[in-house]
Prior knowledge:
Largest sheet of chain A: 4 strands, antiparallel
CATH class of chain A: Mainly Beta
Structural class of chain A: mainly beta
Distance between the termini of chain B: 50 Å
Radius of gyration of chain A: 19 Å
Mean pLDDT of chain B: 91
Low-confidence stretches of chain B: none
Oligomer: heterodimer
Largest interface: A-B, 33 and 25 residues
Strand order of the largest sheet of chain B: 2-1-5-3-4
CATH topology of chain B: Ubiquitin-like (UB roll)
Radius of gyration of chain B: 14 Å
CATH topology of chain A: Methylamine Dehydrogenase, Chain H
Order of helices and strands of chain B: EEHHEEE
Number of helices of chain A: 1
CATH architecture of chain B: Roll
Number of domains of chain B: 1
Largest sheet of chain B: 5 strands, mixed
Number of strands of chain A: 28
Number of helices of chain B: 2
CATH superfamily of chain A: YVTN repeat-like/Quinoprotein amine dehydrogenase
CATH class of chain B: Alpha Beta
Helix content of chain A: under 10%
Strand order of the largest sheet of chain A: 3-2-1-28
Strand content of chain B: 15-25%
Amino acid sequence: MADVRHVSPKDGDALLMVGTMKGAFLFRSRASRARWERGGVYFPGNPVYAMAYDGRAGRHRLWAAPESFHFGSVMRSSDDFGKTWTSGETANLRFPEDSGASLKRVWQIAPGRAEEPEVLYAGVEPAALFESRDGGKKWSLVRGLWEHPHRPQWQPGGGGQCLHTVLVDPTRRERIHVAVSAAGVYRTDDGGRSWRTAHKGVRAQFLPDKHPEFGQCVHKIVRHPSRPDRLYLQNHWGLYRSDDAGESWKDVASGVPSDFGFGMAVHPYDPETVYIVPLESDEFRCTPEGRLRVYRTRDAGKSWQPMTRGLPQKDALETVLRDALATDGFEKAGVYFGTRSGKLFASRDSGTSWAQLADGLPPVVCVKAAVVAKARGKGH
Amino acid sequence: MKLTFRIPGPLLSFTGGRTVVDAEAEASTVAEALDQLWRLYPGLRDRVLTEQGQVRPHVNVFVGPDSIRDTGGLSTPLEGRVEIAIIPAVSGGVAPGRDG
Lengths: 380, 100
């Protein structure tokens, strides 16, 4: 059995949660983010596609959704940074009997608004949204989305038919955006009772009708908390921005070597600054020209610049998946990403320069970054 | 009737480390026999069955030498002394190439 190490983060430390195809890891550093220590492997052998940190209400809670190829997926949490986890004895995300569906994979765990510290969301495969209102003990299917008339016709993307992104609007209590592959972006304005599409202008390059009512293969959407109506979207071909909460989208793919990619992250303090890692094509899902480049915009997508300092620029055929790119909560932002080849990179100067934190991990599918909350319970 | 269950390694954390579980109960089908096992070790149920009550696709359940997939599934009738083995399918591992 793999040797398990632990980390003991303190208030104000940086914490990385890294989910891989064969278990999860934690990385911890002081706020300088100059030196990192590694914890794990947790859930050895099990893919972990979803992790989250919940620092609301004075908690230091980690969430992970380890899955067993044979024995299913369970949501587990830890209040001591991975030293112990809830048992996972009972499957806590369960499709109700009348749905006829069975949980395949948890793709996303999203804490709710700061002022609703007991609310959590989970996006799963087959594509559905679950909600908990008691801090994650009990979960229920969000029926409004499950019963949407489009849902029976949603197609699976290459990764499966998954609800992979949940964006809770920090200012409008009842508004949530979700992204589903390959269906598109759906938005509720009434707390989940009703949903409508929010992907007008986003192309479905792979369909005869390039602008269908639904069927877009959205890979990731991000939003900045200080400007919640502005969203950015990495599509299966296409890079977009919306300034009206998803009512309409505008192509912002100028100056990138490819507008195909998966991961996307927004700067924690600047809603104009966004990060992506373009991949060559849907045929060849690797970094173009063998150069590992993070592209950064600082003007909301008008222009994109390659960030290469500290990243391999030769023979680097890497893939960064949809949840494997993240920013932390520091003003001088940390930006992090993991690759399918098991490398983990970090920048502590908002993406300008990079260092490799780890090599030889199993394929990385999930990277989440957080600043460990102060004891008063204020999240970052 | 005497029931004997064989538990695979990855599930031993749910049985306190027991690889063999014996039970004395009446069970006319595999489903009823497994209900006895869930009663003793509740954590096993969600590992072996989906929330819809079906055996997970990559788990095999054998009665003696026979997979219940060939004998009627969970409704497979039982009689006499029965040994039931829960065995992860050798199709195990991680499906390759899933990007999104």
